[in-house]
What we know:
Blueprint: H1 2-14, H2 17-77, H3 80-84, H4 88-98, E1 105-108, E2 113-122, H5 123-135, E3 139-147, E4 153-161
Antiparallel strand pairs: 1-2, 2-4, 3-4
Amino acid sequence: MKEQIQQWQQKWQALPPGDQRALGLLSLFLGGLFIVYGLFMPAKHFFDNAKNRAEESRELVQWIESQRPVLQRLDLGSGNDTQAGGTLLQRVTAAAERHRIAIKRFEPEGDGRIRLWIERARYEDLQPWLNSLIEQRLTIRTVNLDALQEEGMVSARLTLEG
C-alpha cells in the first residue's frame, strides 16, 4: 500500500503545475458532487418522504377522530345485548322480553341459527322486536306471519342467524 501511495505522489509531482491545479480542481468538484448527490440529496429525499408519511398519518388520525361520533352512534344503536355477548338464544330472548313477545318454542339449527315459533303477539310489538334483532346484527333468514282472528294479533315462525 505504501508503495502505491509513493507511486501516486511521484506521478503527481511529475505533472506540470497547471495540470496539478486542474486535477486538484477536478477532484474538488467531484468531491462536491459526491457530497451533494451521494449524501445530501438522499438524506433530503428520505426526510421529505418521512414528512409526507407523517402528514398522511396525521390526516388519517383526524379522519378517524371525525368518525368517532358515527361509530359511537352505531355502537349505541346496536344495543347492550351485543356488548354483553351471550348466546344467540340469550340475545333473542332478552330482546323478546323487552318487547313483550312470548316465544312459544325454539329449535337450534346448527351453529349460529335458531328457529322460533310465536303463537300470539301483537304486530305492533313484533315489528320493533324484529328491528332490534336487525340492529343487533342478527340476520333474519325466514319469516312467516299469519294473521289471527283477533285484530292486530299474529303468529310467526322465523329463522335467525347470528
